[in-house]
Write a structure and sequence with these properties.
alpha+beta, 7 helices, AOC barrel-like, EC 5.3.99.6, plastid, allene-oxide cyclase activity, eight-stranded antiparallel barrel, isomerase, Allene_oxi_cyc_Dirigent, 303 residues
C-alpha cells in the first residue's frame, strides 16, 4: 500500500481519505487505472495546497505586479522588456561604433584642443621682460624751433615756483648719424638754486622715434647736474616699457645726452643701438642727419 502525507486541514483530509479507498479497491484490477489514480491524486494535492496558500496569505504581503519578484506562474520577461533601448537606438550605436573603429588612433588626440605650454618659453619671456636694454640718444637745441619759452607765471624777476618752460628739441642717435625725431614737453619750476647757478624743475615730456613710437618720462630736471627720470610708458615698439633714463647735462639748454635703461620690451632695432659718441660741448649731428637725407633718418622720423 502506498502512503502519502496527510494534511491536517479540513479541506484536504476528506478528499484524501476518499481517494485512498478508491486506490485500494482498484489495486488488483487494472494497473493502468491505478496509475491514473496516482496522477489524479498528485494533481488534486497540488490544487488543494495552492488553494490553501491563496487563502492564508495576508493581503498586506501581496506585492504589485511591477516589482522585481515574480510568481512562478508569471510568464518570463521578453527580450525587448529587458533592454532599456529600442532596436533602432541599438542600430545607431552599432553604426557609431563601426565608424569610430575605422578612425585612426591619432584622431582621438587631434580632436582634443591642445594648449601650448612650456616652462622654458615662459621662463625666457620672463627673462626678456626683466632684461635691461640700454639706449642712448642726443637732444640738441639748434635754435631753429623757437624753444624753449619761459613763462613767468610767478610775476617775479627771479625764477620762482610756478614758472613754466615748454620746450621741443631735435633728437639724434647716439652716434649722431641719424635724425630720430624730437622731444616735446614742459618743465615746472620748483626751486631756484642760486648757490648752484641753476634751477630745479619737475619735467613731463616725450621722446618721439618716428614709426618706432615714443617714450614718455617724468621726474626731476636739474639744470646744474645729472638726474634720473622715470620711464612711465610708451607706444609702438615701446608699448609696456618701464625703467629709467639718465639725463646728462652737457651744455644747458642746448646739448643733453640721455641714456635709457629699458625693461619689458622686445629687442630694440639695430639702427638705434649704436656706439655712442663721447659727450662734450662740441658734439653735433652729422650734416646728412641735419639735412634729413634718406639714409640719415629713421623710418617716419618725427620733425
Amino acid at each position: 500500500m502506498l502512503l502519502f502525507p496527510i494534511y491536517k486541514t479540513t479541506i484536504c483530509q476528506p478528499f484524501f481519505i476518499t481517494l485512498s479507498h478508491q486506490l485500494l479497491c482498484y489495486t488488483n484490477t487494472n494497473i493502468s487505472i491505478y496509475l491514473s489514480f496516482i496522477r489524479l491524486l498528485a494533481i488534486s494535492l497540488i490544487m488543494a495546497s495552492s488553494s490553501y496558500a491563496l487563502r492564508t496569505i495576508p493581503a498586506s504581503s501581496i506585492r504589485p505586479a511591477n516589482t522585481s519578484s515574480r510568481s512562478i506562474f508569471t510568464a518570463p520577461p521578453t527580450k525587448s522588456s529587458l533592454l532599456p533601448f529600442t532596436s533602432s537606438s541599438n542600430t545607431s550605436i552599432t553604426r557609431s561604433l563601426k565608424l569610430n573603429s575605422t578612425l585612426p588612433h591619432s584622431s582621438y588626440f587631434t580632436s582634443v584642443p591642445k594648449k601650448s605650454f612650456s616652462c622654458k618659453s615662459q621662463a625666457e619671456s620672463s627673462e626678456a621682460a626683466e632684461r635691461v636694454q640700454e639706449l642712448s640718444v642726443y637732444e640738441i637745441n639748434e635754435r631753429d624751433r623757437g624753444s624753449p619759452i619761459y613763462l613767468r607765471l610767478s610775476q617775479k624777476t627771479v625764477n620762482s615756483l610756478g614758472d613754466l618752460v615748454p620746450f621741443t628739441n631735435k633728437l639724434y642717435t647716439g652716434d649722431l648719424q641719424k635724425r630720430i625725431g624730437i622731444t616735446a614737453g614742459i618743465c615746472i619750476l620748483i626751486q631756484n638754486k642760486a648757490e648752484k647757478g641753476g634751477d630745479r624743475y619737475e619735467a613731463i615730456y616725450s621722446f618721439y622715434f618716428g614709426d618706432y613710437g615714443h617714450i614718455a618720462v617724468q621726474g626731476p630736471y636739474l639744470t646744474y647736474e645729472d638726474t634720473y627720470l622715470a620711464v612711465t610708458g610708451g607706444s609702438g615698439i615701446f608699448e609696456g616699457v618701464s625703467g629709467q633714463v639718465k639725463l646728462h647735462q652737457i651744455m644747458y639748454p642746448f646739448k643733453i645726452l640721455y641714456t635709457f635703461y629699458l625693461k619689458g620690451i622686445k629687442d630694440l632695432p639695430k639702427e638705434l643701438i649704436v656706439e655712442t659718441v663721447e659727450p662734450n660741448p662740441s658734439v653735433q649731428a652729422s650734416d646728412a642727419a641735419k639735412n634729413l637725407e634718406s639714409h640719415a633718418t629713421v623710418p617716419g622720423f618725427t620733425d
